Prior knowledge:
Layout: H1 14-55, H2 81-95, H3 99-112, H4 122-126, H5 142-146, H6 148-151, H7 155-172, E1 185-188, E2 199-200, E3 203-205, E4 208-211, E5 213-214, H8 217-220, H9 228-231, E6 247-251, E7 254-257, H10 275-279, E8 282-283, E9 286-287, H11 288-293
Antiparallel strand pairs: 1-4, 2-5, 3-4, 6-7, 8-9
Helix pairs in contact: 2-3, 2-7, 3-7
Amino acid sequence: xxxxxLVRPAxxxxxxxxxxxxxxxxxxxxxxxxxxxxxxxxALMSDAFARVSADQPQIASxxxxxxxxxxxxxxPAAVDEQEARYLAATIWAEARSEGEEGMRAVAHxxxxxxxxRFGASIESVVLSPYQFSAWNRGDPNxxxxxxxxxxxxxxxxxxxxxxxxxxxxEVLAGQSxxxxxxxxxxxxxxxxPYWARYGQGRQVIGAHAFYADVxxxxxRRAPQVTQVAQTFDTPIPIDAPAAQGPRAGRVxxxxxxxxxxxxxxxxxxxxxxxANAAAxxxxxxxxxxxxxxxxxx
Length: 297
């Protein structure tokens, strides 16, 4: 008996599995294509953004409000307490009503003056005669400048005195910005001193006017030399007598002139006087001895 081939009936799930696999492959292919498209698009956009960015100016991501912010801070200079006291006392007596801004401006003027022109120290600058009115004798603020602790005991006086001390130390330590830009002179706007007309670089801060400098007034007042040769055609000899004679003084405010012939003549006081002749009594100008000789009484 011939053997029979065993034929297994077809599995109905086989076509379904093949279809699922085919669909999965197609889906994977579509996803790969989409992924590649996204990557290519991103690359193109990145390249375009890079080219555009290269053409634009570079902008810092953060700009500090203070240009000096972020820079290494300089160590404050050593402060001489005696100098700080003179500076604080002066700005408190001169500008305590101007608040911190006004006192700081005055403090920088004092500090700017240190040198050969006004004095090498704060003490010499503020105590120079008639430079800062608070130190002038008779000024009502002089007692405040000399003894601030006696008057700055409470309230506004104490607050402004503490502020003045802080400002003085900041200025001397090099930790304060100069609001005057290097001014050397100032005065209250309530007055107009004579030297203000020579001031340069005037600016007003609060109730004070500040000046970068004041011109030397001695140069403006220097006399001009007049050349005689340009004024007179012929120089006049010094010893030549005037046409109307030498001056002989004043009578009732009017200048009197002696005759021209009297020029260079000896004065009566310079002639030799005969003491005996001067002592001889006369009548009508005739000596008595002569009258007796002629028999006249």
